């Protein structure tokens, strides 16, 4: 797991308020979810930190951020990968894509981007495989299509049916993505994960 130093540096480098709509910037220091419009939220900082600890991002990793929302997690992930990495954020709400892309661009993270999610497709299969995938929306069942986008030994952190899961794909390229190693890490609430 990344040491507290790496996460502390990432959070300090990319303050939450830089990624929030003007209407809620004053609440940036609140340890709770904040509305970013269109039925979406910017997750509670304590939750984001817990997810990043589980994800264990390393310098040079290729990372997918599903449900990028405000772009905050995309920026944090990019700080953790460093300029040798690649971070792709996907978001289904066009207005949020525009705002998040501008915020990430303003953070001068040239190896990170936010784009529109492809309708009917979960993740970014054409851009994989990824060493790490972070999902900031609640799935009903384990999304095996995202596990299939991981490298061998890659890690997916995703809330499923109220539980935070850390999913590790098998170490061999031909290991079945439908049979990964899965551990549970507490109870959480998120907006629903959809791929329409």
Please give a structural write-up:
With 196 residues, the protein is α/β, with parallel strands linked by helices. It has one domain (4-187): Vaccinia Virus protein VP39 (Rossmann fold, 3-Layer(aba) Sandwich), CATH 3.40.50. It is 24% helix and 27% strand. The protein has helices spanning 4-13, 45-55, 72-81, 94-106, 144-147, and strands at residues 34-37, 40-42, 62-66, 86-91, 112-116, 130-135, 150-160, 163-168, 181-187. The strands form two sheets. Strands 5-4-3-6-7-8-9 form a seven-stranded mixed sheet. Strand 3 (62-66), helix 3 and strand 4 form a beta-alpha-beta unit. Helix 1 packs across helix 3 (72-81). It is globular. The relative contact order is 0.15. The mean pLDDT is 91.
Keywords, separated by commas or semicolons:
196 residues; alpha/beta; Rossmann fold; two-stranded antiparallel ribbon; 5 helices; 27% strand; globular
Mean pLDDT: 91
Please state the CA-atom Rg, rounded to the nearest Å: 15 Å
Instruction: Output the strand order for the largest sheet.
Output: 5-4-3-6-7-8-9
Helix content: 10-25%
Low-confidence region ranges: none
DSSP helix count?
5
